[in-house]
Amino acid sequence: MLSRSAFLHGHSAVRAATARTASQLSTNGTRTSFQNIFVQSRNSHYNSKSDDVNARPPVTIPQLRKLYKNKTPISMITAHDYISGMLADRAGVDMVLVGDSLAMVSMGHESTSEIDLNDMVYHTRAVSRGVKSSFLIADLPFGSYETSPEQAFDSAVKMIKKGNAQAVKIEGGKELYPTIKKLTDFGIPVVGHIGLTPQRQNALGGFRVQGKTAKSAVELLENALAIQEAGCFIMIIEAVPDKVGSLITEKLSVPTIGIGAGPGTSGQVLVQLDMLGGFDAFVPKFLKRYSNYLETNVNAIKTYSDEVKSHQFPSTEHTYSITDDEFAKFQDLVAKKGY
């Protein structure tokens, strides 16, 4: 098990990922090849982030460690496109997650398991264009990492190289130890996810609260300890009793981000469209709505449509003008050409 000081000072895999320099990675053939991909991709991404002189400094893993050390809650929110990424970044959240929840809230699928890696890379790249400072994480979707550590490595490289993600998130526990260790050994930051794991909701019997018995809660803790030992630098705990979320957080030496796990975790995450009131097909108990996106925007579009039909839009203030002289010339030319 990692000690708290080991996390705060950084173990070698995560330290290598955050430093982003060639000297911090092994120079054998395979690692050198990935190192070039990782360093070039991140340098390109951060150069683009620095264009806005008014932007916050980029959030880094060491800064997240500092928040954790100081017991400052960490804020995370999802994003699915350029605009939602920009909104999250301008709001000043610490971390932006391109979650596979976008399969439901953005693409209209019935579950998160219907999205594939190419879809996730596409959306992550779009979000990255709007995120200037927040730390950007992307889900590896169902079917993109379970076969082998090698499959997960290939998927993670694609997500970082083409999607501009800074870390990848995978769902599961101790069975993913070899996978997480391979990724972190090669300098890929990994976010874990335990509790309710939506990609496995069929096996779990649907979207159900996890860890409600002593036995199942112990299993959650054991899974958390295992993926921490494998190298996760942070992990999400979803849909567990608040006391269970708090105790698991106390036993770990890395931050936890709760979603339906109570106030005792190191931080919180919500799906952006959920908390804005933009998705009403499924409303979990843990959701707090901070806006009424659907009603506000439906009303706005309806007003626009009504104004079009009643000739109220566009008005003079929304149109371009031409001088009377030029318009008269235009009419003469039309007449002469016989149009």
From TrEMBL:
The protein's annotated pathway: Cofactor biosynthesis; (R)-pantothenate biosynthesis; (R)-pantoate from 3-methyl-2-oxobutanoate: step 1/2
Matching entries from CDD domains are given as: KPHMT-like
Read off the InterPro entries from this record: Pantoate_hydroxy_MeTrfase, Pyrv/PenolPyrv_kinase-like_dom, Pyrv_kinase-like_dom_sf
GO terms, biological process:
methylation; pantothenate biosynthetic process
Function recorded in the entry: Catalyzes the reversible reaction in which hydroxymethyl group from 5,10-methylenetetrahydrofolate is transferred onto alpha-ketoisovalerate to form ketopantoate.
Family stated for the protein in its record: Belongs to the PanB family.
Q: Name one GO cellular component term.
A: mitochondrion
What's the top EC group for this one?
transferase
Q: Source organism lineage?
A: Eukaryota, Fungi, Dikarya, Ascomycota, Saccharomycotina
Q: Which organism is it from?
A: Sugiyamaella lignohabitans
**Record carries keyword Nucleotide-binding:** no
UniProt lists the gene as ECM31
E.C. numbers: 2.1.2.11
UniProt catalytic activity: (6R)-5,10-methylene-5,6,7,8-tetrahydrofolate + 3-methyl-2-oxobutanoate + H2O = 2-dehydropantoate + (6S)-5,6,7,8-tetrahydrofolate
Keywords (A to Z) from UniProt: Methyltransferase, Pantothenate biosynthesis, Transferase
Q: Name one GO molecular function term.
A: 3-methyl-2-oxobutanoate hydroxymethyltransferase activity
Q: Can you say what this protein is called? A: 3-methyl-2-oxobutanoate hydroxymethyltransferase
